[in-house]
Amino acid sequence: MQVVFSYTDWIASYPQFSATVTTAPQALGYFNTACLYCSNNDGNATGGAGYPLGYSGVPIIPYDTTVNPPITDRLQILYLLTAHVAQLTVGCVIAGVIVPPGPLVGRVNSATQGSVTVQADVGNVPLGAAWFYQTQFGMTAWGAMAPYRTARYRANPGRFAQIPGGAWPTGIAPFGSPFGGPPAGCGGWNG
User: Fold this and answer.
1) Type and span of the H or E element at 138
2) Does residue 85 fall inside a structural domain?
3) What share of the chain is helix, strand, coil (3-state, %, to 5)?
């Protein structure tokens, strides 16, 4: 099940964008950009487009509204990332003032007044997090995705593939020589 973007729901959750993201197509464009950073696919067990062959079919971030209570992690993260992209692109309204997207990334770590000099630093952030740390929405999404950024272990199926019937076709060895022996230079099957 994929998240279907609803401009009405998104703008209700993020009213600070009501003056800068004024149309559903504009917001949908930001949502589609957010989907580049957080997949909105459920998986594909057959290794279809964009998936490695043998992919488990388990979505990285769950979303299922058919269970009770509904699992909406992906919806919340995608809406946060949509707000993040909107903030970076057009800004938002805070306390009645339109705040344009800033050219600085990170916190100001040095400033001078004469001849105006400002330096910004992202700081010591995890690898890959700098883009997310540009807005409060991105930082929140980064934190929400933490449980899904862990490594997934997939057991090695073994040295040799399983062949139906348990025998290799005539003339084809598991590896190496067409006669079934080990490749030249090996000390034997276990060598």
Assistant:
1) helix 136-144
2) yes
3) 30, 10, 60
Residue 42 pairs in a beta bridge with none
pLDDT of residue 121: 73
Residue 128 lies in a domain: yes
pTM of the predicted structure, to 2 decimals: 0.67
Nearest to 21 by CA among 102, 61, 104, 79: 79
Cα 105 to Cα 119: distance, rounded to the nearest angstrom: 10
Number of domain units in the chain:
1
Q: Please check whether residue 153 lies inside any domain of the structure.
A: no
Whether residue 160 is contained in a domain is answered as no
- Run of H or E residues at 181: none
Instruction: Tell me the pLDDT tens digit for each residue of 69-119.
Output: 988 999 999 999 999 999 999 988 888 887 788 766 666 677 777 887 777
What pLDDT sits at residue 6? Answer: 96
Cβ–Cβ < 8 Å for 74, 82: no
| Structural domain span for residue 132 | 7-148
